[in-house]
Amino acid sequence: xxxxxxxxxxxxxxxxxxxxxxxxxxxxxxxxxxxxxxxxxxxxxxxxxxxxxxxxxxxxxxxxx
Length: 65
Fold this sequence. Notes:
This protein has 65 residues and is an all-alpha fold. The protein has three helices and no strands. InterPro entries: CsbD (IPR008462), UPF0337_stress_rsp (IPR050423), YjbJ_sf (IPR036629).
């Protein structure tokens, strides 16, 4: 399953998890536009200081394929 489908299908749940773990994230940080998954992960990396692999594992239970 692609990253786009994973995000699109579970976005509200994923936003809640991110806000819980990274309290300094704002709604603007978590704006998701279809087809913009890499930009979203980049923004999350900048804001949290977490690696892309760490974020993927946190969100999806495994590293991005």
